[in-house]
Amino acid sequence: MIKNALNIEIPEYLEGLGKLEPYQGVWNKLQKGWMDEQTVPPAIKARLPHSSKMHNNLEEAILKCNPRNGMTVSFHHHLRGGDCILIQAITILANMGIKDITLASSSLTSAHESVLPYIEDGTITQIYSSGIRGTIGEACAKGVLQKPFVIHSHGGRVRSVQTGKIQIDLAIIAASAADEEGNATGTHGPSAFGSMGYAMIDAWYAKQVVIVTDNLVDYPCVPPSIRQNYVDYVVATDTIGDAKKIASGTTRITKAPLDLRIARIASDTIINSGYFKNGISFQVGAGGASLAVARFIREAMKKHNIKGSFLLGGVTSYGVDMLNEGLFHAIFDVQSFDAAVSSSLKEHPYHIEIPAGLYANPFNCGCMINKLDVVVLGALEVDVNFNVNVITGSEGEVRGASGGHSDTAAGAKLTVVVCPSFRGRLPIIKKNVNNVVTPGESVDVVVTERGICVNPKNKELKANLLEAGMHVREIADLEKEVDKITGTPEKIEHTNKIVGVIEYRDGTIIDTIKQIKV
What we know:
- The strands form 8 sheets. A 10-stranded mixed beta sheet has the order 5-14-13-10-6-7-8-9-28-29.
- By secondary structure, the chain is α/β, with parallel strands linked by helices.
- It contains 14 helices and 29 strands.
């Protein structure tokens, strides 16, 4: 074992993953301006003239891809809670007798819980994902997988594919419209879901790519989010899922009074931070309180006649309204959190679809998060060193998503984390979080209903907020106050077995997840 920069013990080697590199700081691997790891070339393919890519059903297309034991299969999560393609595909592979599958979905949601039996029977033995939720997360924390799972950021996923750490044998990509050659989009059709930004890297690098659509259109399909030269096969099906289920509790603006209070304090923090001025670029993360901040910022921009540069990331219809009102010049959309966003993405020239690599991969010369002024993020837990956990719950279960959390926190000039100081009888501000996803080094301020805690590294921000008369306090004092209210929770009992690792965005290991004792 060796200790990383956060004093967390990381094994030098882990069966199923190989040699591990410990996290050494937010910018440690990026200071040279390039990535030491070698990249792998995308797959090179060819087809005979006038040959058809169309297949009658998904099973037929998968058979054409020569499935084998030990393969890596990828999916994207743009339909979120409404997706049905992942389950269909894994069921087909299981019925074919395929075993030892590595599942590399950009995220796993509640819609994918019925895949659990295929994990338990060894059809799926490893998972790479930005998030794992529900019964799958609980089972993974108890050690159901035969190999350690990997939690990575959205930007980190792109780097992993480019370096061959994730070698995708088969990418199955749902599209709300596609043509016979595989030109595909999510911007129109009965199941329109918006941006396909997370699936683009899969299409570019996978050895075989299958587009599945419930809206086969005449050639050419426009606008093409994914182009035909990356696509091997096309399947027309009855449905790719329910776009109405894209919006969930984490993608709607909250109506809870406590969360609205926190959102109001957070917006006042931004307004008085020194960054609230013409040209501001802005992102809010998933989570009702985070999204509510946008509501108050919108009001303040109108009041102070502020015109922003761009909105970034997961986009809601609320963000589209701000674009249409002229509050921001452009939106860069890697994922649409609301099906209503799709029409704007199709029609508005400054609502721009971007791939995940452009959004958040640290190893390129134009990563969008590096132009970000302010990001507002949620948290399951925050510790006195400003480290944030968005993965594991109070009982050690895997229940959240890394997503773009650590990516945006690293790139933004001002990273604001919003959370209540406690939920129920569980402290959110703690001495130590269960697991670190986003290091405190990249967090500027934590906003709770009991006050604002500024990272000591940001003295100018603290001075600005104090001058504005805001309730700024030390995070250690807040932790003690919360502890008196909730008491200290019993320590989660783990075995010594590491069932998963949390990758930082540069590929280093920031933390490990140990098996829960049952």
